[in-house]
């Protein structure tokens, strides 16, 4: 009896389990059927519709065939076959004008798309974009191929914001479109939004790890950021020459990446200024300013570079512009004052150069040089070019007047204005000859030992020039 009871319980358990399994199976069918239908995608629906069209045409049910073709085109607006078949049926129904118009538009769109690709390959981006916007997308507004070409054209003409908008529409319809992800990433890249660009490249590579263009774009971006970090780190550590090479290597990776390269050019300029390589620094800062003429720091650094190459006027001009843009910046004002002082000093007479001695020349070297050139340019010894000789002799005397006096020489070296001492840079102060035919007696201390060449006995105590 117990055995019978046990068998009964077992059978009831099995029956209950089978019921549960059937119930789950039925639920799965009911719940998953919509998802399965959706996952079939447009291609399955379109294929079925085209098969129905074939059957309808065979039995001459053209109205039903047209309805199915319209549904197919609505499901996939890029399906050219459906347009051709619809035009064919319209002709059979004697609706010739509609059929001819449809075929004409289709042919125009295809021809325009082919032309747009040809123009794109030839580099005529503006004309290609015109064909896409005014013909292809007018007749075939859902043509993904045309939309992606438009994005490439927008990138080519550097309209990165528009490229981002266009790819946004494409990805809204198909978020796994690899080309749209690639092009959208490039648009963000050229706007120097590297984090967002990298995310787009990475998303594409998750969908297709072997996609050639996505891999190239992603690793090129990583390499650029790596080179930049190396340059900045070496600059901060004082390894300036290594930093220069890193900056140059980063700039060489993508010369068209202007929104990012502007900072590389500026970083390179700053390092070159620190190294005293003025000409190279000038070129780098000018490159940065060519990209953005309002970049304040590049303007200041270019002023510093011009100081290094002794372009005093250019330095003052750049630094004045910078000071006007940022009037509260005391560092800029101090650099401007330094440039203005250098410019002023550059316009005064270079007494060292006139006597052909170095700025570290000793008093005895200055005296020897003075005696040499005073003799060489003595007006009585230059009868044929007396006017030039007088001017030269005047400068020689003025140079000696300043450089032989320790106090005056120190003030001159500091860049002070010596006009108040009668030693104006224009030569209008000190005049050993006086003016208007006056007499001038100039004293050579101790005379000239050994005489003045052809002047017998030298000048032991002084001599007079009469003019």
Can you tell me the CATH topology of the domain at 352-466?
Answer: Helix Hairpins
CATH homologous superfamily classification of the domain at 352-466: DnaJ domain
Q: Please mark out the parts with pLDDT under 50 across 5 or more consecutive residues, or reply none.
A: 15-42, 423-430, 434-467
Strand order of the largest sheet: 1-2
Major sheet: size, sense and barrel closure?
2 strands, antiparallel
Specify the number of helices: 21
Sketch the topology as an H/E string, one letter per element: HHHHHHHHHHHHHHHHHHHHHEE
By CATH reckoning, the class of the domain at 352-466 would read Mainly Alpha
Report how far apart the termini are. 159 Å
Which percent range describes the beta-strand content? under 5%
The helix content, as a percent range, equals: over 70%
Label the overall shape.
elongated
The computed structural class is mainly alpha
Radius of gyration: 44 Å
User: What average pLDDT do the residues reach?
Assistant: 79
Signal peptide: 1-38
Domain J: 350-416
Protein name: J domain-containing protein
Keywords: Endoplasmic reticulum, Repeat, Signal, TPR repeat
